[in-house]
Amino acid sequence: MIYILKFIAAWLLPPGLFILLAALLTCLLFRRRAGRVRYLALALTLLLYLCSTTLGARLLALPLEHAYPQQQPSQAQLIVVLGGGSVGGVPDGAQQGGLGAYGATRLLTAARLAKQHGLPVLITGGQVFADGASEALVSARILRDLGLPDAQIIVEPQARTTQENAGYTAALCRELGYERVLLVTSALHMPRSKYFFERYLGTQGITLYTYPCDYTLNPESPFSLRRLVPQSGALEISCNALHEYVGIIGGRLR
């Protein structure tokens, strides 16, 4: 019974509701023989449906998420963790400002690795939007609360993009003498991050290792009809994957 209720709810709530409305509009356009616009409406409806299903999300995201393995942290001298979004003006104990889900997962992974291997952590990420917070400063505060000493925390609070993350990190590594770096970021974000970091760190002769985390999909899950049902989570994964593809293409064009 619970699966039937979830199936019905999936079509009564976005994005399922929007897909149904788009499908009805498309049918109306075909009945009225509305020229080429009906084919455009059909294509957009199918695209929205595909991106809203786990099937579509897997097609887009899995090649990115599993492009690089988790390499051994023991090979590195420094952990670099990328920010993943922040929220300003919200309480966090006696302080203000919090991390988004992506940033929090990345930071937790970095904290675990730092404690297990005794490595310093470089947090890179500034305040991107006016309603946000400085990701590096918030992250440093959280690392201290988790028991990591100041001697293991390096803060880079200026970067606003992945390219700037790489550029500022390369400058700090050159200044502090680090030659082997372990990059921690979301698996979906790793291909684009690795491209920029290899570009900037490579010019300094710095070796880069990867440690993707924050995976969104199980690559071994068996097929089920649930993959064909629209879900807001699947649409979010698809949109994030498309964002990464556009970022990779844009970075290579530049």
**Helix count, per DSSP?**
9
Radius of gyration (Å): 21 Å
- Helix content range: 40-55%
- Order of H and E elements: HHHHEEEHEHEHEHEH
Given the helix and strand composition, which structural class is it? alpha/beta
Structure description:
- The protein is of the alpha/beta class.
- The strands form 2 sheets. A 5-stranded parallel β-sheet has the order 5-4-1-6-7, sandwiched between helices. A two-stranded antiparallel ribbon has the order 2-3.
- Strand 4 (121-124), helix 6 and strand 5 form a beta-alpha-beta unit.
- It has helices spanning 2-12, 16-31, 37-51, 54-65, 101-117, 135-145, 162-176, 190-202, 232-253, and strands spanning 78-82, 86-92, 95-99, 121-124, 153-156, 180-186, 207-213.
- Helix 2 (16-31) runs antiparallel to helix 3, helix 4 crosses helix 9 (232-253) and helix 7 (162-176) crosses helix 8 (190-202).
List the helices and strands and how they pair.
Layout: H1 2-12, H2 16-31, H3 37-51, H4 54-65, E1 78-82, E2 86-92, E3 95-99, H5 101-117, E4 121-124, H6 135-145, E5 153-156, H7 162-176, E6 180-186, H8 190-202, E7 207-213, H9 232-253
Parallel strand pairs: 1-4, 1-6, 4-5, 6-7
Antiparallel strand pairs: 2-3
Provide keyphrases for this structure.
alpha/beta; 254 residues; two-stranded antiparallel ribbon; 7 strands
